[in-house]
# Entry
Amino acid sequence: MTQTIIVVGAGHAGGQAVATLRQKGFDGRIIMIGDEPYVPYERPPLSKAVLAGEMELERTFLKKAAWYPEKQIDFRPNTLVTSFDRRAKTVTTSHGENLAYDKLLLATGTRVRKLQAPGAKLENIFYLRAIDDTLAIQKQMKPGAKVVIVGGGYIGLEVAAVAVKTGCEVTVLEGLERVMSRVVAPEVSEFYDKVHTDAGVVIKTGMAVTGFEGHGKVERVLCADDSSYPADLVVIGVGVLPNVELAAEGDLAVDNGIVVDEYCQTSDDNIWAAGDCTNHPNSLLGRRLRLESVQNAVDQAKTAANAMCGELKEYAEIPWFWSDQYDLKLQIVGLSEPGDEVVIRGNPADRKFSAIYLRHGQFVAINAINMIKDFMAAKKLIAEGKHLDPVKAAEAEVALKDM
Amino acid sequence: MAKIFITNREGEQSEIEGEIGISVMENLRDNDYELEAICGGQCSCATCHIYIDESWMDKVGPRNDEENELLEELDCVQPGSRLSCQIEFTEDLDGLALTIAPDE
# Structure
C-alpha cells in the first residue's frame, strides 16, 4: 500500500524535507501543510534584500511553485494543523479535514515573541518573520519616516541598516546593555553600535519599553526611564518561541522544543521533527540544544528525511550563522558562552576583524566580520576541537588554518 | 532558452534548459541537483561550489573577491572553481559545462 508522509510546516525545514524525500526516491504520498500563502522560502533575505526592494519575492522560494505539483507534493497553503491523533495516525486541519499518515514530520518552526505592553496592538507596530510582515513594513518605511526598532539583535539591526539607507530616521531601543549581546563578543557589539551610529542610527541600550501611544496608529514609544520616542512605525524583534503546542498536545516529549534524537526522531516511532522547533542532541557540542538557524533547519530536515526513508545518518554539525548589515558580512561559527576567553584578530577600525572564543584553550566559536577566510578555517578547526594559543591567535597576519 | 551541461557528484552527465537572468545556482536548485546552497545566494557559505569546464572559464569570467576568499579555503578547490550563486546565467553562456563539486 502507498505510504503517506505528512509534513507539518512549510518553512525552510519543511521545504528541504520534501525535496530530500523525493530526491531519495520516496514515491509515496507527500502532504505538506503550511499556514502561509507561499511555498517554502528563505527567510534571511526578508530583513535584508527583500525589505530593501533589491530582491524579488519569487527568488526567495526554495523551489518554484510549479515544482510541488510536478513532484506530486500535495501542498496545502493557508492551513493550520489544529490537532493530531497518534493512535489513529491522523491530523486535523483548520479546514476541518482529517488526514491519515504513516509517518509525520513536525517542522513547525517558531513564532515571534510578542511584547505585552499597553498600546502594543496599535497600527504600524510590526514584527518580522514572514513575507507578509516584510511587505507591510516596506509599505510604511518611506524616506523621512520615524522608525523605532525594539530589540537590537540580528533582525532589529538588519532592519535598522535598511531603514537608514532608505532615508528613515531610525532609533533602536535595546533592553540589555549592548546590541547583539546574545550572539557576539562585547568588542563586536561595540563595533556594530559605532557602525550604526556613524550611519545615522540612534542606538539606545538598557532601554525597557513599557508601552506605545497613539490614536489608532502608533505615535510614540514609551520607556521605563520616562523617555519617549516619536514613531511612524515600530518594528519589534525580541526573539522567537518554538511552536511546540501541537507536539505537547499529542503527548510527545517537549522541553524548550520538541525533543528528538540524533536522527530527528521524536518519542513516537512514526514522528520526526526538524528545524527551529527541536531540542536535539549534538555530539560535536556534547549537549542538547535548540537552534534558530537556516543551517540547522536544512541539515536536520535532511537527517529527518533520510531517517524516514530508513537511512540513519546522525545529525552533528557545528552551528553557523550570518548577518549582513551595510557592507559588513558577519559570519558566526559555534556557540560562545559567558566566560569564554575572547581574542581579537585584526583591527575593528579596518572594518575587518574576528573575535575568537577559547574555552580552556579550545577554539569553540568565532565572530568574523569581513573575515571570510577566518570563517572558513574556523568551521574546520572548531569541528576538530583545535586548541589555540591566544597570543598567536591574535596575529591576523598568520592564517588561522596554519595555526 | 540556453543549455547547461552538468556532471553531478556521482559523475553522471545531464543537461537542462537554463533560465536566463537567474544564477547558475538557482538553475541547479530548481532542477533538483544535489547542491546545498544554504545561504541562498548571499556569498556567505561556499556550499554551492562547482567546477566550470576549462573551455568555459574565460567566458564565465573570474571570481569576485569575497567568492575567492571562500573558495580558497576549501580542500577541493580547483582552477575552475566558482560559487554558482555568483554567476548569472545569460544567453552568452548557452552550452555551459560544469561539474558539481563534492560536499565539504
Remarks:
- Chain B touches chain A at residues 22, 26, 29-30, 32, 34, 36, 38-46, 66, 69-70, 72-74 (CB under 8 Å).
